TrEMBL record:
InterPro entries: 2-thiour_desulf. This is DUF523 domain-containing protein. PANTHER family: HYPOTHETICAL CYTOSOLIC PROTEIN, INNER MEMBRANE PROTEIN. It comes from Vallitalea pronyensis. Pfam families: 2-thiour_desulf (PF04463).
């Protein structure tokens, strides 16, 4: 079983209520090979919700809305709940949405809300990778046999 970002499976759970449907990833779910998850929804955040980005504040990584609301604790909670789910399901691989402060792996938005990208990992992607799960994105999963 593979864990996938729910938005990539066509589920309308992005901050703006939309999805980032990727047909091959959606097919993995439909074929019973993957389970969709949205860490932000698991944390209790609403759909829609304010757009968030990662930013370093006083040496710590925080997740803030554009108007400065700190949602770091919710994103930590979502990452932890996703890990708990992955552990129970014995997940070894995940395909996550790039750029996201939860699921971004390799690149994330830089916290300026200007669309600029930097190297980094969202909270969920970082935790899953730390726990030994092989993390892919919608950009690099195609060469893997699922």
């Amino acid at each position: 079983m593979v864990l996938v970002s729910a938005c990539l499976a066509g589920i309308n759970c992005r901050y703006n209520g939309s999805n980032s449907c990727h047909q091959q990833i959606k097919q993995l779910v439909e074929d019973g090979k993957a389970i969709p998850v949205c860490p932000e929804v698991l944390a209790g955040l609403t759909i829609p919700r304010k757009c968030c980005e990662m930013i370093k504040v006083d040496g710590k990584i925080k997740i803030l809305t554009e108007d400065g609301e700190d949602l770091t604790d919710a994103f930590i909670k979502g990452a932890e709940k996703t890990w708990e789910m992955a552990k129970v399901l014995e997940i070894e691989r995940a395909i996550l949405q790039t750029r996201s402060p939860s699921c971004g792996y390799g690149i994330v938005y830089d916290g300026t809300f200007t669309g600029h990208l930097i190297e980094g990992n969202g909270f969920t992607a970082a935790l899953l990778a730390q726990k030994g799960i092989q993390v892919y994105t919608e950009l690099n999963f195609k060469d893997v046999t699922w």
